[in-house]
Amino acid sequence: MEAKSKVKEINLFPYVEKIGREFDAYKNSLEKELKKLEQLIHKFNPSLEYKEQRKSVENMFKIQGKINNLKLRLEEIKQEIQMAEKTEEEIEKENQQRQNTFNGMTAREWTLHSRNVWNDVSSPRKDYHKEHGAVFPLKLAERLIKMYSREGDLIFDPFSGIGTTIKAALEMNRNGVGIELNPSFYELTKRILLDPKETPIIDSCIFSEENNGFTIQKNNANDLFSLDGIPSNNYIKLFNDDCRNLTNYLEADSVQVLITSPPYADFIRKSIEDREKVHKTSLIKLNNNSTVKPYSDSHLDLGNLPYDEFLEALLPIMEDTYKVIKPGGYAIWVVKDYKDKENFTSYLDFHTDIANLGKKAGFLYHDLIIWDQNEQRSLVLLGYPSKFHTNQNCSFLVVLRKPTTDEMKQIRKKEKRGIEHPNDRHQSNTKSQNIRRGILKHN
Ligand SMILES: C[S@@+](CC[C@H](N)C(=O)[O-])C[C@H]1O[C@@H](n2cnc3c(N)ncnc32)[C@H](O)[C@@H]1O
């Protein structure tokens, strides 16, 4: 029997026209920047023109980033077209795949989401973002939720900020729990979530508040259906508390994925001091447009702790998150490495410390995703003229995974036979570790 096509005709014209217009605009801006650069090089005068040249090169990087986004958009359009051309059999096969995967993705979607360098997750910046100063984009939370959970799963953010993670959870038919210490960020999250312009879905939800938290629950009576056709009554909750109390709010083995960006010890305070003292007249201050500021003066705020104390405080939190995450569930920590002036190193590798803390708490190190932020940040002159180091205009998404029950059993069995836990393997004097250190010579 011949397979039937679901949709016979699709009008590609608006897509093609829009993409064409955007390409033309970027091509023109690139050409303009190139011309400017050529002129500058022609009458090169290092002291006068350096700033302009740099701006021009940066503009080109930004345009390049936008072109990359367009490429991804084209890929999405290609997918939409393929979707529209699918036969009933193909649709059936995909539905099967969606049911078989833990995150409801088809094999094709799975592959398309497996890039590990992202430069297409920026979301529009609103004024209220400045009230906080260090939020991650909604698109970033949405992508992680799509990759690591399915509808109805529970998502958790222990350092909720202005609630980006739980907002994405609500909008994507997941449940969400957030904890935020600072009462003004708790109130700001409430304002954002209750504003239909910011959170249109709120019109079909019920809001309730008690003691130190609130709940927003989808209203079943409005017949709100998820994509699967199952009535969706998911909820989100936010608590105004210290996340060291997280086990008061979450049951053991209940969370499918944790998505968070912790305070970066007292790095924010240090960078502000640094900018004020050292870079009073430098380009770093002029061009980095930073909006970050300390979160609070509270002694419970992890953003007020020196780095070592901060790591010490984070370990029991990691251990508690391990308890509440389901076997096989994920924990994703979004962090940036810190420019470390005091210890003769270029960067303090915060992301490695997070991975190691996670391993100490029992998680398996699972993946590393680079969030490329070149588009939003200017380049500054570092180490000149004696030590070259790069502008780390990126954040790291450290992906940890709690072993499944079966993996835990196997790990225990192996440990009984004297085989190390996977997390200890790199810490002791194993052969591979020694080779890496250059202690053993290859035969
Ligand atoms: C990097 S921000 C998170 C921003 C968040 N990802 C967003 O997009 O809105 C870190 C947050 O942790 C909060 N925080 C600091 N110490 C805390 C603690 N002990 N318990 C809970 N939250 C805390 C800070 O107030 C700050 O809002």
TrEMBL record:
Keywords: Coiled coil, DNA-binding, Methyltransferase, Restriction system, S-adenosyl-L-methionine, Transferase
Coiled coil ranges: 23-104
InterPro entries linked to this entry: DNA_methylase_N4/N6 (IPR002941), MeTrfase_CN4_CS (IPR017985), RM_Methyltransferase (IPR001091), SAM-dependent_MTases_sf (IPR029063)
Molecular functions (GO terms): DNA binding; N-methyltransferase activity; site-specific DNA-methyltransferase (adenine-specific) activity; site-specific DNA-methyltransferase (cytosine-N4-specific) activity
The DNA methylase N-4/N-6 domain, residue ranges: 64-190
GO biological process assignments: DNA restriction-modification system; methylation
Annotated SUPFAM superfamilies: S-adenosyl-L-methionine-dependent methyltransferases (SSF53335)
CC per GO annotation: cytoplasm
The protein's Enzyme Commission number: 2.1.1.-
Domain of life, per lineage: Bacteria
Location of region: Disordered: 414-443
Catalyzed chemical reaction(s): a 2'-deoxycytidine in DNA + S-adenosyl-L-methionine = an N(4)-methyl-2'-deoxycytidine in DNA + S-adenosyl-L-homocysteine + H(+)
N-terminal signal peptide: none
Comp. bias intervals (Basic and acidic residues): 417-427
The family this protein is said to belong to: Belongs to the N(4)/N(6)-methyltransferase family. N(4) subfamily.
Name this polypeptide is given: Methyltransferase
